[in-house]
Amino acid sequence: MRYFILSIFLCTFVLPASAQDKQDEHMRLFSVEGNYADVRDDLEMAITDRGMIINNVSHIGNMLARTRKDVGGKQIFARAESLEFCSSVISRHMMEADPRNIVFCPYIISIYTLPGEKNKVYLAYRRPLPVGSPASKKALQVVEKMLHDIVNDVLE
Question: Could you give all domains of the chain from N- to C-terminal order, each with its CATH number?
Fold first, then answer.
């Protein structure tokens, strides 16, 4: 018997203000003026300066551009990547509070630019919504603070 694994990457898109308000519960979206490569370097440093290693980089923009001819559709991103990383300390605390919190690990911050928008770079992450026991909720709030602090370092 063969098993197939389907990986689905959740990408963050800029939505109209009315739709964006509905997404605030699930994601945080930021933008900064600058060059994509410089902002990406700043993001990588903001992660690694905290002692974390980037486990994987998903080249979402390249994948969409490569498959566009086969599946059709318009160009979505000029450039787009998601950086995946983990904190052994924060993750351990989060999963000791509730082993089911494994679903919130690894952490991912997306970075992208849109066609026709020169020098505007977007950063986004999915919010780890506080669920479970009080200890679990507190641990997940620490995760969100870490994600926010990383993005904030890039924006400064």
Answer: 25-155 (3.30.310.70)
- Alpha-carbon distance of 81 to 86, in angstroms, equals 17
What whole-number distance in Å separates Cα of residue 134 and Cα of residue 67?
A: 44
* 3-class state of residue 71 by DSSP: helix
Note whether 107 and 125 are within 8 A (CB). Answer: yes
- Structure tokens given for 86: 């983990």
What is the pTM assigned to this prediction? Answer: 0.83
Question: In 3-state terms, the chain is what percent helix, strand and coil (to 5)?
Answer: 45, 20, 35
Cis-peptide, bond into residue 99, ω within 30° of zero:
no
Give per-residue pLDDT as tens, 35-89: 999 999 999 999 999 999 999 999 999 999 999 989 988 999 999 999 999 999 9
